[in-house]
Amino acid sequence: MHEIGMTIVEWIIGLLVLGGALLGALSAFGLLRLPDVYTRSHAATKSTTLGVMSILLGAFLYFVAYDNYVSAKLLLGIVFVLITAPVAGHLIGRAAYKSGAPLSDRTVQDDLKHAPHTDTQLREHTDGQLPHERERQRE
Based on the number of CB atoms within 10 Å of its own CB, is 49 exposed (0-12), middle (13-18) or buried (19 or more)? Predict the structure, then answer.
C-alpha cells in the first residue's frame, strides 16, 4: 500500500511541476505573440502566477512526502506570488494606459476612456477638490 501511495504522490508532484513549466512556456509564448502591452501583461500575470504556484506546490508536496518536512517558506512563497503578481500586473497595465500606450487595433472596448486620469480631470468631475483634500478640511 505504501508503494502505491508514493506512486500516486509522485504522479501528482510530476504533473504539478510539468503543468507549471508548461504554463510558464505558454506565458512566454503570449509575451511574444500578443499585440499590445495590455494583453501581454495579462498573459504574463495570469499564466505565470498559476505556473509558479504549481511548481511551488509540487516542491512543497515533494518535501512533505519524501522528507516529512513542511516548508513554511514554500507556503509563504505561494501566498506571496498569489497576492503580488496580479496586483503588479494591474499596476503595470494602469501605468501603461496613463502613459498613453496604444491599444491593439483589435481592441473592441476601452473602459477607461472616460475615466478621469489626472488630478485636473478629477477636479473637473468633482466639486473642485480631491478626496484627500476634503478629508483634510474635515479635520
Answer: buried
d(CA 77, CA 10) in angstroms, rounded, equals: 22
Cβ atoms 84, 63 nearer than 8 A: no
Question: How far is Cα 60 from Cα 55, in angstroms, rounded to an integer?
Answer: 9
| DSSP class per residue in the chain | -HHHHHHHHHHHHHHHHHHHHHHHHHHHHHHHHSSSHHHHHHHHHHHHHHHHHHHHHHHHHHHHHHH----HHHHHHHHHHHHHHHHHHHHHHHHHHHTTPPPPTT----TTTTS--SHHHHHHHTTSS-HHHHHHHH-
Give residue-wise pLDDT tens across range 30-61: 889 888 888 888 888 888 899 999 999 999 99
